[in-house]
Write a structure and sequence with these properties.
The protein is of the alpha/beta class and 237 residues long. Helix content is 38%, strand content 26%. The strands form 2 sheets. The protein has a 7-stranded mixed sheet with strand order 3-2-1-4-5-9-8, sandwiched between helices. Helix 7 runs parallel beside helix 8.
């Protein structure tokens, strides 16, 4: 979506956009943050694509400085309002790919959740480069991306056991969601992309969320195998 469309989304962000910090059902975000070695004093958090500030609201108090980056002015205005009592946050209304030049390489923990989803490979490459560019040596990145394995499972469930057709687009992880084509990642692909831009993988796992997010009823059987995004904690080399 373009900036104008994102701004229109601001008032209904929670119902229209994936906010995995709020929606994941296994408390994985907290566990992954706990594994990152964050300085006890003066640590820096950079949230690339901070949305309405859910992650910053939950974890920003652990850092001496927080930078929230968001493309749409309407959405970042909501984040500012939600975090108005926090005096350690700087907000930047900018695209993620352009943010690195302004911020510099100084983040102890860089968060990027369901942002690197463009169908364009060059755009995704620029986003991965920005993630690396703001994360200082030995700092950590917490990345969440849509899972193609999960989407296969959801589609198979929705179609009574019939697996989705393997089109050329789907083979590249390109899936139409909410009227737009989004990149979905295989687990190994996520690992390869982070390694390519200078990270060492520390942990990859599932960030599960309720079936209702996929527009489906959650039965007892489905509860044991919920849809998921891939969540990865990686350390900058």
């Amino acid at each position: 979506m373009n900036r104008k469309q994102w701004n229109r989304l601001a008032k209904r962000f929670e119902s229209e956009a994936c906010d995995i910090s709020r929606e994941e059902s296994g408390n994985q975000v907290r566990r992954y943050v706990a594994r990152a070695r964050i300085p006890k004093k003066n640590g820096v958090l950079v949230d690339l694509g901070c949305g309405v500030g859910t992650f910053i609201r939950e974890f920003g108090h652990r850092f001496g400085e927080v930078v929230g980056v968001e493309y749409a002015a309407g959405i970042i205005a909501r984040a500012k309002a939600r975090c108005a009592d926090m005096d350690n946050v700087t907000w930047r209304n900018a695209g993620v790919a352009q943010a690195a030049a302004r911020i510099g390489q100084r983040s102890d923990l860089t968060v990027c959740m369901n942002v690197i989803t463009s169908s364009n490979a060059a755009t995704r490459a620029a986003l991965w480069s920005s993630l690396a560019a703001v994360t200082k040596k030995n700092g950590f990145a917490l990345v969440v991306v849509p899972s193609i394995e999960s989407d296969d499972m959801v589609e198979t469930t929705a179609n009574n056991g019939r697996k989705p057709r393997r089109t050329a687009a789907r083979a590249k992880g390109l899936v139409r969601r909410s009227g737009a084509v989004q990149k979905h990642f295989a687990r190994d692909e996520l690992s390869d992309d982070l390694t390519r831009v200078g990270f060492t993988i520390r942990k990859i796992g599932r960030a599960s969320y309720p079936w209702s997010i996929e527009g489906m009823r959650e039965t007892k059987a489905r509860r044991a195998n919920r849809p998921w995004d891939w969540m990865c904690l990686a350390q900058r080399n």
